[in-house]
Amino acid sequence: MKTLLFSLLLTISGLTTLEAQINENPILNLENEDKKRLNWGYYLGFNQYDFKVDYKYHDYSTWYMADQMLTSKSLGFNVGLIGELRLNDYLDVRLEPGLYYNQRDVGFKNLLDNSSKIVPVKSTYIHIPLLLKVSTKRLGNIKPYVVGGVATSFNLSSNNGNTQNITNGVLSMRKSNYYWEVGFGIDFYLRYFKFSPSIRGSFAFQDEITLDKAGDDPFLGNVKATYSRAIFVNFTFE
Questions:
Q1: How confident is the model at residue 200 (pLDDT cuts 50, 70, 90)?
Q2: Residue 224's domain is classified under what CATH number?
């Protein structure tokens, strides 16, 4: 994922520099694109989800249920639609509903008896961000921007309420959650459409793993809360 992000940043930087050097007075593509009140498009991309874990006890010399939780991350994919409302030359409100698929392998270790367990967590989210896009003045055929806002998601793979626990290879996940998001990107005005690569971080407000049965689970005794966080790399076509 680090290589992917570095490559994307390098590509954006290179394209921006090339645009500035070659097209000091460019022929403008899609001159009226930003004058529309409503705009539509779609996006494809990649994601990488992780867990931020809060522990009850950080002193592992404590005799009481000194557990650890680690996540092995992998790349998932995103696909979705874009609806954009133009407020003025620099501000747009965007709704970006999409389908996000990812798998995390979550490892648990009980330091008291040295037992361990790995649970694969496959998640399919309906993710709906509502974002404010703040753009610079158009520079020839490019326009950098930052974006931020809130989002909600519905986990179609949720098994919340399952009576089994981690010992049985089951991790109970919340059915829905809320996030705040922030990112940046660049609009490239091509001859027939606008292309926008972007990077965005997403951070959950609520505990993602339901810990109702923590008292009965030997691997969750030291886990206080878990929060999903993710990186999205999207390629937008409008």
A1: very high
A2: 2.40.160.20
